[in-house]
Write a structure and sequence with these properties.
By secondary structure, the protein is of the alpha+beta class. It is 23% helix and 40% strand. The protein has a 13-stranded antiparallel β-sheet with strand order 2-1-8-9-10-26-25-24-13-17-18-22-21, with helices on both faces. Strand 8 (182-186) and strand 9 (189-196) form a beta hairpin. It is globular and about 90 Å long.
Length: 431
């Protein structure tokens, strides 16, 4: 009898979870969706529940309770871009459980306090113009745009359940077939992400649009043995593409003009701090009670940053000087005000460095990766040079990202983010 009851409970639980999964794909993604990310909320809940049972003492030390959002979180959450907007604009919609709680949540967590009543729904926008939300009794929709694009048309479609993908759409069918905490689909490319003990792992295929990445073997500089951040990108820019100019204070930067001198390789390393001479300006009153400026030289520690750009070095430096981007071998402080950055050239490369005495290295080595990034966050924190960054990397120790050519026209990447506690699931440490 007990076995029958247990079996019945298991069947009922399975049926309930499958129904949640089925409902989560219905009327949630706009028909113009382009790049779609699926977050498997139920799988995340199960992972956290199992980790809690294994490491309950870790979770019991955490303070604070659950945040009440007024949302009914479905089995799967979708975040996506649409064809008619830029790739810097994202959308999401979720079922509403309680409008009063939701309104309070939006005010507290999203900083949106003013709402416009359209007669069919409430709509509000953040002070910086990047986040817009709209909701009625059934649906909450949000648009986030780094470029502050108008998202109201898509939000209105989501609230009215118009122009939505059917759950049998090929893109959604691809996402249904992927069993992972995170998954994405973009045209013919897919990728996944999983939270493991002490590690978050992401991987997937992509097309490096606008760049020419050919071959299986790439060449890069041998980095300083003390480097705590190492990065290289070995690819050429598609010369047929046009890039819009952008303004930095009084300077207009024309990417097309810059890129025509570059030869398809750039790297960056962060080493031991560099010493730079700075000036401290104070004011004192003289015997005649006149205010005088006192300039005192001082030495300061700055991050040791070195970057090599393969280029037609002479022509590139001439252009940089002409545009006042570089003057007397130093990058204009209006463009990079944090520290002095020195520009040096060899026959085939330009070096940008915070170390005035940094030297070119001729040592090179081969790699299967056209892109590589490695960062040691423990050593980064020990330097004490990036105080604003430290609050975001408290729980992590290392990052490794690598990308290589799988087949012509398709590249593949893998990213591993390592956390401090190797026995605790990364999800439990991330939040």
């Amino acid at each position: 009898m007990l076995a029958a009851v247990i079996l019945l409970l298991l069947v009922a639980t399975y049926a309930y979870l499958e129904l949640r999964k089925y409902k989560s794909y219905r009327n949630r993604v706009h028909a113009d969706a382009d790049f779609i990310v699926k977050i498997d909320a139920d799988k995340l809940y199960r992972t956290l529940a199992i980790d809690y049972l294994r490491n309950s003492s870790h979770y019991k030390r955490k303070k604070g309770g659950a945040i009440k959002s007024g949302l009914n979180i479905p089995a799967n959450i979708f975040i996506y871009t649409v064809h008619s907007k830029s790739l810097q604009t994202y959308f999401c919609s979720l079922p509403v459980a309680d409008t009063a709680t939701l309104k309070s949540f939006i005010k507290k967590e999203l900083g949106i306090s003013q709402f416009k009543n359209t007669g069919k729904y409430l709509r509000g926008t953040s002070a910086n113009g990047q986040t817009t939300v709209a909701f009625n009794n059934h649906t909450f929709a949000a648009g986030y745009s780094l470029t502050k694009e108008n998202t109201n048309d898509v939000l209105e479609d989501l609230l009215n359940a118009q122009n939505l993908l059917e759950d049998k759409d090929p893109k959604l069918k691809q996402l249904k077939a992927i069993n992972a905490h995170l998954a994405y689909v973009f045209k013919e490319h897919t990728g996944t992400g999983d939270f493991k003990d002490g590690l978050m792992h992401l991987q997937g295929d992509f097309n490096f649009k606008g760049f020419n990445v050919d071959g299986k073997v790439f060449n890069h500089r041998v980095f300083d043995k003390h480097a705590i951040v190492k990065m290289w990108l070995n690819t050429s820019i598609n010369s047929n593409d046009k890039y819009a100019a952008f303004q930095v204070k009084d300077h207009t930067i024309y990417p097309d003009s810059l890129l025509k001198y570059c030869k398809g390789y750039i790297d960056l390393e962060l080493t031991s701090p560099a010493i730079q001479t700075d000036t401290l300006i104070t004011y004192e009153y003289n015997d005649d009670f006149e205010k005088e400026e006192i300039i005192t030289p001082r030495t300061v520690k700055v991050p040791g940053i070195n970057s090599i750009i393969n280029a037609d070095a002479g022509s590139l430096l001439t252009y940089l000087n002409k545009e006042d981007i570089v003057s007397s071998g130093i990058v204009n402080r209006q463009l990079f005000p944090l520290y002095s950055v020195y520009a040096k050239t060899s026959i085939s490369a330009v070096m940008l460095s915070t170390n005035k005495h940094a030297a070119f290295s001729s040592s090179r080595q081969n790699s299967p990766y056209f892109f590589y990034l490695e960062a040691d966050f423990e050593k980064l924190k020990a330097q004490g040079q990036f105080l604003l960054l430290e609050s975001y990397i408290k729980q992590v120790t290392n990052l490794k990202v690598k990308a290589w050519n799988r087949i012509p026209g398709q590249s593949h990447f893998e990213m591993d983010l390592y956390f401090k506690l190797k026995h605790i699931n990364a999800l439990g440490q991330l939040f």
